Amino acid sequence: MPELFIGGTWTAAAGGRKREIRCPADGALVASVDEAGPEDASAAVAAARDAYDSGPWPRTPAAERGELLLRTADLLERDKAEFARAESLDTGKRLVESAYDMDDVAKCFRWFGHLVAAGGHDRVVDTAPPDVDSRVVHEPVGVCSLITPWNYPLLQTSWKVAPALGAGNTFVLKPSELTPHTAVMLMRRLTEAGLPEGAANLVLGAGGVVGVPLTEDPRVDMVSFTGGLVTGRRIMAAAAPTVKKVALELGGKNPNVVFSDAAFEAAVDYAATAVFLHSGQVCSAGARLLVQEELHDAFVAEVVEQAESIRLGGPFDENARAGPLISAEHLEKVEAYVEAGLAEGAVLRCGGSRPGDPELADGFYYLPTVLDECTPDMTVVRDESFGPVLTVERFRDEEEAVALANDTVYGLAGAVWTGDPARADRVASRMRAGTVWINDFHPYVPQAEWGGMKQSGFGRELGPAGLAEYLEAKHIWRNLSPSPQRWFA
Ligand code: NAD
């Protein structure tokens, strides 16, 4: 069965090209999938446009759209094991983590399903004169290009697909070329749930080839993108000539600020999870550890001990606690960041190389790495390495901690650890990031908005704003007793 889904039909790539998908844990061939070209992107946009302009979906009552999202959530739960396995093969991620992600995907569809079905977004403007009926209604934006990354393939996709469909849009989805399988499976479940033809379309392939036309095509109304900063800039520029609505969820270089009065054991434990979870391939990874001077030595020693204890392995190795990086290119990029850090004066406390274990030789593994004595000007501190690399900086007081935390072009997430609630609140409110955790790291819920400040992007996913992103407000003013105004009399 071909893997492109255009206008309700499973279609092979027009150019007949295929791409091999290999598991990053051992290089084993997962499958060969259709590799779309610009002509396929154009056909998918045409199908989405047609479904928006003349199909039933945008005109389906909100309650029914919500029901469809709820049915999709049921199907995702029914098939969770199959989805988790496919996601692990594409990403190399531990099966247990993929299973958690699939739970979150279903929760996302369920939450948006209830939100959409509840309705209540339109409102009457009751300050209008008595002979006027004035109301604000919300309409779908139109045709959306949804472009997603490889680190949480279906989760990032669900944050876009559920609200986009819930709001009544039609879309073309382009997942990362490295991790296409769960997107293909999602299209099948949306069809099974009863989504009309053309509302959901899927193209697979390289960003530069099939992603670009999705961001330039005049028939597209909105681009929602999750991925790297450099790609985000390109997408903004590509969408500018046709003034598309754009939402960008980009990277982060997230500070984890630990004061000396923090709960020591918990702060150490979370500092390790913050950065080493999914081998650091998390947009909100706590990759910059800022520790108060007097706590520094003891704290770093404990974090290093935790880092050294992390067992690496493939998705189905039950003893493994972290998996490989996504690709050979990405592994080389992470290595280069560590080398740059060492050349610029960082001190290696652990890791800093590929593992010696011959069983891991075919995968793209990198040891959990701690770079100490870092300074804000170092490349490894400034750029997102997106690998298992923790940089450690010291601070003296609250003022310096806030200044260091905010000394980044990014503003996605951050955390503060302290036993002083007033200080926690002060630091949280001064941190320029879309999410701030106090004495915690990483949790999120679909009810709360997610997104970045500064160069981490704009627009929000999840929460009520995550639905509003896919709606346009329209003011309709009806004069109930029109009579001449005689302005020019
Ligand atoms: P990437 O930017 O390389 O690719 C993301 C997607 O964009 C892929 O589907 C790719 O094919 C496509 N693409 C690439 N160039 C394109 C172009 N010119 N036009 C259109 N599409 C194009 O990112 P990645 O390596 O897949 O993902 C890692 C990045 O994603 C990290 O920077 C990470 O921080 C970020 N991310 C952010 C969030 C968030 O919520 N803010 C979540 C997950 C990942």
How would you summarize what this structure contains?
The chain is of the alpha/beta class.
Describe the structure.
Helix 14 links the parallel strand 17 and strand 18. The relative contact order is 0.13. The chain is α/β, with parallel strands linked by helices and 489 residues long. The protein folds into two domains: 268 residues, Aldehyde Dehydrogenase, Chain A, domain 1 (3-Layer(aba) Sandwich); 184 residues, Aldehyde Dehydrogenase, Chain A, domain 2. The protein is globular and about 80 Å long. The longest helix has 24 residues. Bound molecules: nicotinamide-adenine-dinucleotide. Nicotinamide-adenine-dinucleotide (NAD) binds next to helix 7 and helix 8.
How are the SSEs ordered, and which strands pair?
Elements: E1 4-6, E2 9-11, E3 18-22, E4 29-34, H1 38-54, H2 62-78, H3 80-91, H4 95-118, E5 123-124, E6 132-140, E7 143-147, H5 153-166, E8 170-174, H6 181-193, E9 200-202, H7 207-216, E10 222-226, H8 229-239, E11 245-249, E12 255-258, H9 264-276, E13 288-292, H10 296-309, H11 328-343, E14 347-350, E15 369-372, H12 379-382, E16 389-395, H13 398-405, E17 413-417, H14 421-430, E18 435-438, E19 457-458, H15 463-468, E20 471-479
Parallel strand pairs: 7-8, 7-10, 8-9, 10-11, 12-13, 12-17, 13-16, 15-16, 17-18
Antiparallel strand pairs: 1-2, 3-4, 5-6, 6-20, 11-19, 14-15
Helix pairs in contact: 1-7, 2-4, 2-6, 3-4, 4-5, 9-10
Bound molecules: nicotinamide-adenine-dinucleotide.
Nicotinamide-adenine-dinucleotide binds near residues 206, 231 and 249.
Family: Belongs to the aldehyde dehydrogenase family.
Pathway: Amine and polyamine biosynthesis; betaine biosynthesis via choline pathway; betaine from betaine aldehyde: step 1/1
InterPro entries: Ald_DH/histidinol_DH, Ald_DH_C, Ald_DH_CS_CYS, Ald_DH_CS_GLU, Ald_DH_N, Aldehyde_DH_dom
